[in-house]
Amino acid sequence: MANPLVSVIIPSYRHERFIRECIKSVILQSYSPLELLLIDDASPDGTLQAAESLRAECGVRFVRTVMLSKKKRNTAVSCNLGIDMAQGKYVYLIASDDAAEPNAVQELVQVLESRPDVVLAVGDCSIMDDASRRIGWDADRRGIPLEKARFKTFGEYLRLNIPSRRRNEFGSYASLLEGNYIPNGYLMRTDALRAIGGYNTSVLLEDWYMNLQLAKLGGMVYLPRMLYRYRWHEDNVIKTYGTEETGRKIYREIYALEEAYCREHGLLSIIRRRHPDSLHSRWHRGRRRVLKAVNHIFYINLTKRKFSVFGREFHFL
């Protein structure tokens, strides 16, 4: 039986430096058939022109290639346009500054083909810098050399690779209501995306909201293998959501939208506990501030046999 068509959607914006590497990673996929749908959000640089320079290679590799620029809106609008145009059974979404490992689509399709109850499949992500060198994150999510990193993959940062952790509840609605933890580079059922109406273009964190809607339709599967390369650089969109106040706005918005569903399904206790204005959340924010202040004065790491006082490090035998 022939493989199902997969629609690869690339929403792009101001990634002239990275878009060719992104497209090349799709060209090098071990899976066929694929179609490529690149929707540029009116980039002021040469993103679309850089993509067009690969038009001939794409014409040979893909059953259909679409590269277009639309009026400036946002990433969610670009994704929805791609979903509307998609002819594939599945949609593979890849950011224009990231890249996919050669076996990514193949492995994720195998999951969805064998599990009709699953609407989304995703693997782990390695982390790379703006020069495509592999790096890791420290405790504050700063990019550092891999050998010094506390988190060497996105899955480690999200605590997805701990044995048995979230194995049975990965992608469940209740667990996602606590916070978004789905890595990038996922494959989704096209009919499921259309059933939920695609992305909500007005929410601050459209990925989290979409994942919650998909979780209402079916399960999700995580593969603890690196199938995606996530780029960490100065212009990451996620960094615009890095402030505490913005994070609280995101939670307030999502919980307001989901309150009626949670009331109907007996999940309001999660919202009440996790809401940024709840006593529980305020207590934890205060606790984190105190611990951060204490760690600034004195910090000890027994594993590395060192301690610091007001930022000055000392080692002990």
- Strand count: 13
Q: Using only CA atoms, what is the Rg?
A: 21 Å
Structural class: alpha/beta
Number of helical segments?
A: 12
By CATH reckoning, the class of the largest domain would read: Alpha Beta
Largest sheet at a glance? 10 strands, mixed
Residue-averaged pLDDT = 90
CATH superfamily of the largest domain: Spore Coat Polysaccharide Biosynthesis Protein SpsA, Chain A
Put the structure in a nutshell.
By secondary structure, this protein is of the alpha/beta class. The protein is built from twelve helices and 13 strands.
Report on this model:
The chain is of the alpha/beta class and 317 residues long. It folds into three domains: 6-240, Alpha-Beta Complex (Spore Coat Polysaccharide Biosynthesis Protein SpsA, Chain A); 242-277; 286-317, no CATH class. Helix content is 37%, strand content 23%. It is built from twelve helices and 13 strands. The strands form two sheets. Strands 1, 2, 3, 4, 5, 6, 7, 8, 9 and 10 form a ten-stranded mixed beta sheet that branches. A three-stranded antiparallel beta sheet has the order 11-12-13. It is globular and about 60 Å long. It starts with 5 loop residues before the first strand and ends with a strand.
